Amino acid sequence: MSSEKIALTQTVQKGGCAAKVAASELRRILQQVKFPAAHPALLVDGRLFDDAAIYKINDEIALVQTLDFFTPIVDTPKLFGEIAAANALSDVYAMGGKPLTAMGILAFPLATMAEHVIVDVLQGASDKIAEAGANFVGGHSIDDDTLKFGLSVTGFVNPGQAWTNAGANAGDHLILTKALGTGTMTATLKSQHFQEDDIMEALHSMATINNAIDCMTQDLQAAVHAATDITGFGFSGHSMQLANASQVTLRIQTEKLPRFTKTFFCLENSFLTKAHRTNSEYTAANIDVSNLNNLYRLLIHDPQTSGGLLLSVSSEVSHSMVQVLRTRFKSAEIVGEVLPRQDKAVVFE
Ligand SMILES: Nc1ncnc2c1ncn2[C@@H]1O[C@H](COP(=O)(O)OP(=O)(O)OP(=O)(O)O)[C@@H](O)[C@H]1O
Ligand SMILES: [Mg+2]
């Protein structure tokens, strides 16, 4: 199989989760749709802006369902497939679930792109799905102007043990499992300032599946009170959503936020995306950034693709939890704590 680089990022205008419809626009659109009342078995649905839907089958099993696709964020096809799959699987892990089956969603420019490109994308996805212990069971493909790829993933969770974004308690500690900066670092690929070899740490991180739950004992799993994954709306947007859903305030020690070695270099040199601005607008009224300089403001708004999990955990286990997580996620860090609700959802110190 070819691993030839064909500069996929040059074939699209936006890449990865930075291509997501901005959060405020998405909310405005969804609010105009008249959805029927939720079925009683639906424990979590799209209205809660959580990571995935949860549908209870019986007292032991609930389905976890999610779908994610996007445009190329890297130049190498197989790596794009790996990252797209890790990103799609992530929303199941963010609910405390285990992925079971995955289906591919593919839009492919048949006239302009060689067939081996898509074989490589699908191979990358297949390898990641297998690594997650799930099954790649099918998909759907269309001919389109630009390449888009993703997965619909179905997983399962015990309905009493699901992690949602609504369970954070005052006194909890907050853990972030991956470094921040994939938005600005992949913007350097698009502008051709850097090659993939220059940003390997970010590429490796995006291709890492968020199976934090597989490192945890039952007791540690139960000590997670809330979770979400940090993706296109940035640390600012996703932490704000978790705080609002849980009706608490998050106090973040901003200097503790893990970041890649080159994240600040890339931000300082203005490798930015539209999402840096839209994430800032989305969160402006609800977070306090008055203590932050411009660089840290850009960091918290940086759109992540296949970013880390933000876990709100019992303070008694936070240090042992971080040690366990670091066996798989070397950047995992305690980044703040949960306070009773104040005026703002998130305060950055
Ligand atoms: N086209 C759509 N139709 C219905 N609901 C949607 C649609 N797009 C998004 N949503 C819902 O809006 C909410 C926010 O979507 P978003 O994609 O940000 O969540 P997410 O899946 O956690 O993101 P990510 O995959 O980047 O972690 C989710 O509950 C999602 O199910
Ligand atoms: Mg998510």
Automatic annotation (TrEMBL):
GO terms for cellular component: cytoplasm. The active site is at C17. Residues 50-157 form the PurM-like N-terminal domain. The record marks K20 as: Important for catalytic activity. One of its GO terms (molecular function) is selenide, water dikinase activity. Pfam families: AIRS, AIRS_C. Mg(2+) binds at D51, D91, D229. Binds 1 Mg(2+) ion per monomer. Gene3D superfamilies: PurM-like C-terminal domain (3.90.650.10), PurM-like, N-terminal domain (3.30.1330.10). It catalyses: hydrogenselenide + ATP + H2O = selenophosphate + AMP + phosphate + 2 H(+). The keyword Nucleotide-binding applies. One of its GO terms (biological process) is selenocysteine biosynthetic process. Signal peptide: none annotated. Residues 170-347 form the PurM-like C-terminal domain. Its cofactor is Mg(2+). Synthesizes selenophosphate from selenide and ATP. This is Selenide, water dikinase. It comes from Nitrosomonas supralitoralis. The lineage of its organism: Bacteria, Pseudomonadati, Pseudomonadota, Betaproteobacteria, Nitrosomonadales.
